[in-house]
Amino acid sequence: EPEVTQTPSHQVTQMGQEVILRCVPISNHLYFYWYRQILGQKVEFLVSFYNNEISEKSEIFDDQFSVERPDGSNFTLKIRSTKLEDSAMYFCASSGGARGYTFGSGTRLTVV
Amino acid sequence: GENVEQHPSTLSVQEGDSAVIKCTYSDSASNYFPWYKQELGKRPQLIIDIRSNVGEKKDQRIAVTLNKTAKHFSLHITETQPEDSAVYFCAASIGGGNKLTFGTGTQLKVEL
């Protein structure tokens, strides 16, 4: 069964540093997403991406966040200047539109 | 925007009993309602989903019901087993590649 893969599985970074989280969506999917889950809380939508541009973003997705699809396979989330409150599990997901969403295994980001 | 409420936040049942988790949504345009099971530190795993053109869907011990008029949907697990213990999230989407809005989660504990 096709999978969404994410790297790294765990990232520890100093406050104020930039991090890039990487995702390889399912190859024939057209829609890509980033979600965030703070420990013990619900999964929160950050951003959706379609046709090489952001289609929707939440209020969480402020100027410190950006997404890119630098080539035909990767989908990245960049956090420019990390804050303690950015510590969370970040999930990438992709969908084919009419079909369900597939989530990656997540990147646990710890900001110290 | 869409708002999804989920109840209860915790649910403890005896092995073999049934468990019911309920969600309500606010956006009448929502037409896709998946349920996810999340084990500690893992990704959300889709267990069942329903679209707004049907009222009920069943897959072995799991069923989902949808009441579009009342804007609520429920997950039913029968003959619960210890391995059903996890956090369950409902979600809603207007489909077509749009984001999922998640409920706050239900910690299900199946006791021997």
The level of helicity of chain B is under 10%
Radius of gyration of chain A: 13 Å
Low-pLDDT runs of 5+ residues of chain B are none
H/E element order of chain B: EEEEEEEEEEE
- Largest beta-sheet details of chain A: 7 strands, mixed
Sketch the major β-sheet of chain B: 6 strands, mixed
Strand % of chain B is over 45%
Residue runs with pLDDT of under 50 for 5 or more positions of chain A: none
Order of helices and strands of chain A: EEEEEEEEEEE
Helical region count of chain B? 0
The shape of chain A is globular
Could you characterize what this model shows?
The complex is a heterodimer of chains A (112) and B (112). Chain A has 112 residues and is mostly beta strands. Chain A has strands spanning 5-7, 10-13, 19-24, 31-37, 43-50, 53-57, 65-68, 75-79, 88-95, 101-103, 107-111. Chain B starts with a strand and ends with a strand. The mean pLDDT of chain B is 95. The A-B interface holds A 30-31, 33, 35, 41-45, 48, 50, 55-56, 91, 95, 97-98, 100-106, 108 and B 32, 34, 41-46, 49, 89, 91, 95-105.
List the helices and strands and how they pair.
The complex is a heterodimer of chains A (112) and B (112).
Chain A: E1 5-7, E2 10-13, E3 19-24, E4 31-37, E5 43-50, E6 53-57, E7 65-68, E8 75-79, E9 88-95, E10 101-103, E11 107-111
Parallel strand pairs in A: 2-11
Antiparallel strand pairs in A: 1-3, 3-8, 4-5, 4-9, 5-6, 7-8, 9-10, 9-11
Chain B: E1 4-7, E2 10-14, E3 19-25, E4 32-38, E5 45-51, E6 56-59, E7 62-67, E8 72-77, E9 86-92, E10 101-102, E11 106-111
Parallel strand pairs in B: 2-11
Antiparallel strand pairs in B: 1-3, 3-8, 4-5, 4-9, 6-7, 7-8, 9-10, 9-11
Task: Write a concise keyword list for the protein shown above.
heterodimer; A: 112 residues; mainly beta; seven-stranded mixed beta sheet; four-stranded antiparallel beta sheet; B: 112 residues; six-stranded mixed beta sheet; five-stranded antiparallel beta sheet; 0% helix; globular
